[in-house]
Design brief:
- It comes from Paenibacillus odorifer.
- This is DNA-binding response regulator.
- InterPro entries: CheY-like_superfamily (IPR011006), Homeodomain-like_sf (IPR009057), HTH_AraC (IPR018060), HTH_AraC-typ_CS (IPR018062), Sig_transdc_resp-reg_receiver (IPR001789), Tscrpt_reg_AraC-type_HTH (IPR020449).
- This protein has about 500 residues and is an alpha/beta fold.
- It folds into 4 domains: about 120 residues, Response regulator (Rossmann fold); about 120 residues, Reverse transcriptase/Diguanylate cyclase domain (Alpha-Beta Plaits, 2-Layer Sandwich), CATH 3.30.70; about 100 residues, no CATH class; about 110 residues, Arc Repressor Mutant, subunit A (Orthogonal Bundle).
- Helix content is about 60%, strand content about 15%.
- The protein has 21 helices and 10 strands.
- The strands form 2 sheets. A 5-stranded parallel β-sheet has the order 2-1-3-4-5, sandwiched between helices. A 5-stranded mixed β-sheet has the order 7-8-6-9-10, with helices on both faces.
- A hairpin with a 2-residue loop joins β7 and β8.
- The relative contact order is 0.05.
Length: about 500
């Protein structure tokens, strides 16, 4: 929109021009007509002007002086000088003073409109460029983890002295964009709209003064009408006039928006000043279920593990934990599963899933967050359990064959578990279930069986050599273990066997 002021000491000329311009295009807005340059300059601080159309000869401050003063104080305002043919020399001086152009009286409306359309196009190009530059700086400022640098703040020029941040969140981009566009069209505010991610927009609303409660209520009513039953969460910050507080305003608005996951209404609209924030300890409820959860994971008790997770979510809901806090707790659960279940990490990363961060960020209710997480979590546990049941018949046999062939080597539990893609704890339980022996007892039985065979059939081998051959490098330990299990020492067994 091109905001225009007309300055001429002849009322018929200035009012006639105003009517003619207003009829031509709704984007041409005549915001004032003045009989003298001084009157315009007096009101200039309260105006948002793009173009001044001024006559040359006027009392007090004439057109040339007005153009010079505008150039010094408001160089962004473009000037058009109206003159009679006999004042051509004045017109040339005006051009040197950076007036955009001059128009000869009587005014040729086609020439005037051609000039105004040209200015509108130039203005739109300039504003688009300015908006793109400002949007880039704003995105850097809002999404950065560190406090904004002084250089960045100095580079950022806002359209109005005050700003308020609005965060819009919807299920997809389209409804959010629709509401934002309607707000921009219907409210008399300058607005920057930034898309943070699909369905999440930040609007920075600029104003000449702080927004009042009635202003926010009016904006809320507009949003409610535009949403028209759509599920939409909107959070707003307080008004500030310090660019250093932009990021804090964004975080406040985001928090006010995030509390919408606990609001059963389709439209959630809240200001940060109305949000009661309380300190919560998310580590305590997680620690309460951590050990039993680990136990359930180790034995792949899916029902028990999911019950622990559900209880954890119930506590988070009662505390009204924010999405970023829920995310941290979910990560702790995932880390526990990755530590206890060897297959979990690969399945978690490879599954067709939004990703934990994106899933929580896009959810519109707490129950949706819990459902999405537990469904994905349980599907991975189920896949692991099915795989292990398929493997269980062959896993123990694989381990037994390895021990039979390598009984004299050190059998590390982690190494054995890796061979059959099981966790050490699960392999231990499975082996005992299948054989009736622990892994240690089974290895001992195999070794001593081999030792007895050598004691019978290799009379030339000394006792300590036989012990080393079956994996016991310490002769004293070999003797002690052999007697405890067999009932006699290796020497006694050898004598008995020979006889």
């Amino acid at each position: 929109m091109l905001r225009i002021a007309i300055v001429d000491d002849e009322i018929l000329i200035r009012e006639g021009l105003a009517r003619m311009i207003s009829k031509e295009n709704t984007e041409f807005l005549v915001i004032g007509t003045y009989s003298d340059g001084k009157h315009l300059l007096d009101e200039l601080p309260s105006l948002q002007l793009d173009v001044v159309i001024t006559d040359i000869r006027m009392p007090q401050i004439n057109g040339l002086e007005l153009i010079k003063q505008l150039k010094g104080s408001h160089p962004q305002i473009r000037s058009i000088l109206m003159s009679g043919f006999v004042e051509f020399n004045y017109a040339r001086e005006a051009i040197r003073s950076s007036a955009v152009d001059y128009l000869l009286k009587p005014i040729d409306k086609e020439q005037l409109f051609e000039l105004l359309y040209q200015l509108e196009e130039e203005q739109q190009f300039s504003r688009d460029k300015e908006v793109r530059h400002r949007s880039g700086l704003l995105l850097t400022l809002l999404q950065g983890d560190e406090p904004p640098s002084p250089l960045l703040l100095l580079s950022l020029t806002l359209p109005q002295p005050y700003f308020s941040v609005f965060v819009f969140k919807g299920r997809s981009r389209e409804p959010v964009c629709f509401c934002v566009d309607r707000l921009r069209q219907e409210m008399a505010f300058s607005i920057d709209s930034l898309e943070i991610q699909n369905g999440l927009h930040v609007c920075i609303l600029y104003s000449t003064k702080q927004l009042s409660d009635s202003d926010r209520n009016e904006i809320g009513d507009r949003i409610r009408i535009s949403a028209n039953g759509m599920i939409l969460h909107v959070g707003t910050s307080s008004s500030y006039n310090d660019t250093a507080k932009l990021r804090q305003a964004y975080l406040d608005a985001k928090l006010a928006c995030s509390i919408g996951i606990y609001n059963p209404d389709r439209l959630h609209y809240a200001n940060i000043q109305n949000i009661q924030q309380s300190e919560i300890n998310i580590l305590e409820p997680f620690n309460a279920i951590k050990e039993p959860l680990i136990h359930d994971l180790q034995i792949l008790n899916m029902e028990g593990a999911l019950e622990r997770v559900h209880n954890l979510f119930s506590v988070l809901k009662s505390q009204q934990a924010m999405p970023h806090q829920i995310l941290r707790v979910c990560r702790w659960v995932i880390e526990s599963a990755q530590k206890e279940l060897q297959e979990f990490e690969a399945l978690y990363k490879g599954a067709p899933y939004l990703g934990l961060d994106e899933s929580i960020a896009s959810s519109m209710s707490f129950s949706e967050i819990e459902r999405s997480f537990t469904n994905h979590f349980s599907s991975i546990l189920f896949e692991i359990r099915v795989h292990r049941l398929e493997m269980s018949g062959t896993a123990v046999e694989t381990i037994k064959r390895w021990i039979s062939a390598n009984y004299n080597q050190h059998a590390d539990l982690n190494t054995l578990a890796n061979m059959v893609f099981l966790t050490p704890s699960y392999l231990s339980k499975l082996f005992k279930q299948e054989t009736g022996l622990t892994l240690t007892d089974y290895i001992t039985e195999i070794r001593l069986r081999k030792a007895k065979h050598l004691l019978k059939n290799a009379p030339d081998l000394k006792i300590h050599e036989i012990g080393a051959e079956v994996g016991y490098g310490d002769p004293a330990y070999f003797n002690k273990l052999f007697k405890r299990v067999v009932g006699v020492t290796p020497n006694e067994y050898k004598r008995i066997s020979i006889v």
